Amino acid sequence: MVTNDSVLQMLEEHTSFFRQGKTANAAFRIEQLHKLRRAIIRYERELLDALRKDLRKSEMEAYSSELGFVRSSITYQAKHLKKWMKPRKVRTPIYLAGARSRIIPEPYGTVLIVGPYNYPVQLILEPLIGAIAAGNCAVLKPSESVPHVSAVISRMIAETFEPAYVRVVEGEKEVTSALIRAPFDYIFFTGSIAVGKIVMEAAAKNLVPVTLELGGKSPVIVDKTANLDLAAKRIAWGKWLNAGQTCVAPDYVLVHEEIRAAFVNKMKEAVSSFYSDNPQASEDFGRIVNERQFDRLAAILDADRDLVVHGGRLDRDDLYIEPTLLAVGDASSSKALEAESMKDELFGPLLPILAYSRLEEAIELVRNRPKPLAFYVFTEDKEVRERVLGELSFGGGCVNDTISHLVNHHMPFGGVGHSGMGGYHGQHSFELFSHHKSVLTRSTKFEPGILFPPYKDKLKWIRKVLK
């Protein structure tokens, strides 16, 4: 049983391991990354089977978005780690002549990583890769909503690492509560906005720095110049990947009124071409994680039942919700925004569609909501593209695509405002889990003494230098 006292004891074990200095060594870090990669390969079948049991993920989807994703990340970070670890020389101003300045990356210590249920392999191991690369110890808390995945990851980590270095702690909400209230050196949380606020509040009491990877209602704007065939397919792929349980999935679409009907038809065609006319029978369409989340989505769908233009079928025993299109109305209408599907992040296979006549309407609607984790625009008009990118704030996004921006390890992935704080992936993961220590080294060969008392007429020289 996990208690406050047992968490403190666990932290003492990690602190003792960390102070041995092993993790400061580049060779040690790289070897641990390779050990993790070998473990993922060794446990591949068990992880794929667990993802199938918990979320009904197809093997293609599970490997590409989870296992293959983290394997590729390990390869990249291990290859470049030595270069990232080197102290970085920076310029020294003239008034500090005779000194040299460096920035030295150092690990925080022991990191708590709390993972979500939607990508339970990727979103617990990807931050772990960064934590290891930066030289930290880590405690992993997988989501209790995916028990099969959690159990496999727990066995895999226990077999691969010393528990005082990296360990998994399983359990329900009470366990998470005890962990986030402990004095870790860093907390990395992926999950809902509501829980993210609880994590941040708990961390603040111990002055623990946090990264919050949250979510929100990520919008799509489809301009009248968009390539509708591709737009529909790319939006459909991004929306119904993992049955819509993706933090950067398109949450609602703003489409120009001149192409609204054509867009809806193209979306219907995309659903049919991806999953057949019976997505429930498709091996490629996943399921809702549990009955609680199913009931939440079913209630939204029931409230907006008269808005359904495609889909809408439910099967609670199978945790199945059909890919569903909802014609919510016009972006300028307050009634449209009162639809149940437009209130909070959906995190499921429901897609509200709104029409706009002027780009200003679409921009204003997005602006009036909390800053989203992702934003997507489909257009062939450069002026439209530059305007929305310049006027809207969001974590990250794509032009003429969805979701793909997070696959590029050269770009940070993270939110802004209510959608989170802190970005990771690739070198950005190393930077995130490192404290950047500033060090200035002064020469002892001479000392101008201008800063030492008595000051007398020294101020005039200071005024000349600091102006």
UniProtKB/TrEMBL annotation:
* Domain of life (superkingdom): Bacteria
One biological-process term from Gene Ontology? aldehyde metabolic process
Quote the CDD domains the UniProt record gives: ALDH_YwdH-P39616
Keyword NAD included in the entry's annotation: yes
Cited InterPro entries: Ald_DH/histidinol_DH, Ald_DH_C, Ald_DH_CS_GLU, Ald_DH_N, Aldehyde_DH_dom, Aldehyde_DH_NAD(P)
Residues forming the catalytic site: 213, 247
What are the entry keywords? Answer: NAD, Oxidoreductase
Which molecular function terms from Gene Ontology are attached? aldehyde dehydrogenase (NAD+) activity
Q: Sorted alphabetically, which Pfam families does this protein's record hold?
A: Aldedh
Q: Which GO terms describe its cellular component?
A: cytoplasm
Q: Where is the Aldehyde dehydrogenase domain?
A: 10-439
Name the family the entry cites: Belongs to the aldehyde dehydrogenase family.
Task: Give the protein's recorded name.
Answer: Aldehyde dehydrogenase
Source species of the chain: Paenibacillus nanensis
